Amino acid sequence: MELSFILTNAIVVAAIYGLIAVAVSITWSSLGLINLGYGFVFSFAGYCAWLMAQNVSEWPPLVAGAGILGGALAGVMICLVVFIPLHDKPNFTTRGMIGTLAISLIGSQALLMQFGPRAKALPEIFGFWQVDIGGVILTSDKIGIVVCSILMLGFVVMWMRGSRRGLEIRAMMMNPHAASIVGIGIRSTGVYVMAMTGAMAGLASVLLSQTYYVAPFSGLTPLIKGVSIALCGGLGSVQGAVIAAVILGLTEAVTSRYLGGQYVLITQFLVIILILIVRPRGISGLLDKAREQ
Amino acid sequence: MTDVLRIDGLSAGYGPLRVIHDLDLVIKPGERLGIVGLNGHGKTTLIYAIAGLTGWQRGSILLNGTQIGRTRSQGPGRYTHQIVRKGLALMPQGDEIFTGLTVEEHLDSGAFTREAWRDRKIRKERVLDLFEPLRKLMRTPVGRLSGGERRMVSIGRGLMTDAKLYLVDEPSLGLAPKIGQSVMEALFALDLKDSAMFIAEQNVALLEGRVDRVIGMHAGKLKGEASAGLGFN
Could you tell me if A198 and A27 are in contact, meaning their C-beta atoms sit under 8 angstroms apart? Predict the structure, then answer.
């Protein structure tokens, strides 16, 4: 009973952070941008979903859709403001990181001015039912969160594998120089990548606000965790990010059960540091089939 | 008929370094042109300048009558994808492959124009006829291939579109003589129709008698011209 409770919690947390980590990972490897703007994307998507629930309808797909679309929109915004002007300037990695961090802070501040400091609650989009599987009680939001994340992740992976745009993005992840040689435009691909990863962050925001609230700076912790999980998985690897998310989700669940919630960040980052000491390039090094060059 | 490529007064380089000095070159439709020169004399830079990949450049480059050679001072590669889409096929030195993609995905990625993407199956078949050894490797990640196979993938990728101008940079570099020979044979076997091919190469013997013109390149300038079959001094 105890163990299953910890496990389900771990999986739920992993599902949410995994979405952001995969988004960070894809952005880094295809565009060479460490996007710290997901904090803003996250809150922006949360407010989009909240506005939809307040003003139009509380119908769950509509609320989630508003969050996803809002995330994609915020992603494209970051792309237009930071990525496109900066991407071929010297020292882009650092500039891009600072630029996106600036967007994150400015955007969150703007949200604070617009909506005020009071946290908003989203409607329970998954309802209030629960299932009992062999003594393990699964509540509706746990099941909903995991299913939605897996669907989204599955969709993204399928799209990257199957479609022409996905092929372009994967080509750019592996060799941006060669990508331009085969006629792949960095800027237009950048818009696709940022819209897609923004949508992932948007969904993560809606899912996380099933347990927490929507607030102007609510994106900060998910951002930090997402970036460090992506780092842990080896920036640029989707599988690595997923595995790292599961490990850190487990750490979070175990810590909050046995030590208390206030120790979560401490143990999590200790684990991250440990993994990076043992495997400096993250978990994905173990999974690579082909060595670089 | 317009020239496939007309270069007037092209200078190019990287940062303070000037590699190409005031160079002129005309390539006619249906022509196969060999550029021969030693390491570090600007062959690759010339190809990069045509594709807009150098650090800076000035001078006029007309590809099939459209200007692709504006003065550039920053952002190498910023417009490369647009230039490439005007009808260039690049087969760069060092292959520039995507290590994690399979051979098949590679060939697909080369078919970037709308027409090429639509009938990519036929085009892939055509490339496979040229490079038989790739046929059984279609699902293998390119990172696991040998040097010769990688070169075939990189050249095959360039053959997926109907380019006006094929830029081939040192096709035999780093390959065993026999494999280098077969790669060259494939390049010579290609039916150019009204497009043209530009081959940069160090090994004159491989080009001899097989291309229409051979031009020497020395210290960033084109020097001396020999038609095919004549010895080259």
Answer: no
B109 with A177: Cβ contact below 8 A: no
Task: Tell me how far apart the alpha carbons of residues B55 and A70 are, in angstroms, rounded to a whole number.
Answer: 38
**What pairs with residue B222 in β-bridges?**
B217
Contact state of A168 with B143 under an 8 Å Cβ cutoff: no
Residue A137: enclosing H or E segment and its boundaries? strand A136-139
Average pLDDT of the residues in B142-170: 88
Could you tell me the pTM of the whole model? 0.83
Residue A293 belongs to some domain of the structure: no
Assigned domain for A163 exists: yes
C-alpha to C-alpha distances, B164 to A134, A182, B153, B158, B161, nearest whole angstrom: 68, 14, 20, 11, 9
pLDDT at B226: 62
Interface-testing mutation among A165, A182, A189, A289, with chain B (most B C-beta atoms within 10 A)? A182
Domain count, chain A: 1
- CATH number of the domain to which A31 belongs: 1.10.3470
Residue A116 lies in a domain: yes
Of A168, A174, A181, the CB nearest to B90: A181
Mean pLDDT, residues B14-34? 89
Determine the distance in angstroms separating the CA of B109 from the nearest CA of chain A, rounded to an integer: 7
Rounded Cα gap, residues A163 and A192, in angstroms: 12
Q: How would you classify the pairing of strands B5-14 and B56-63?
A: antiparallel
Which has the higher per-residue pLDDT, B76 or B65? B65
Where in the sequence is the domain holding A212, given as residue range(s)?
2-286
Residue A262 lies in a domain: yes
Q: What is the mean pLDDT of residues B99-117?
A: 86
Hey, are the CB atoms on A289 and B85 less than 8 Å from each other? no
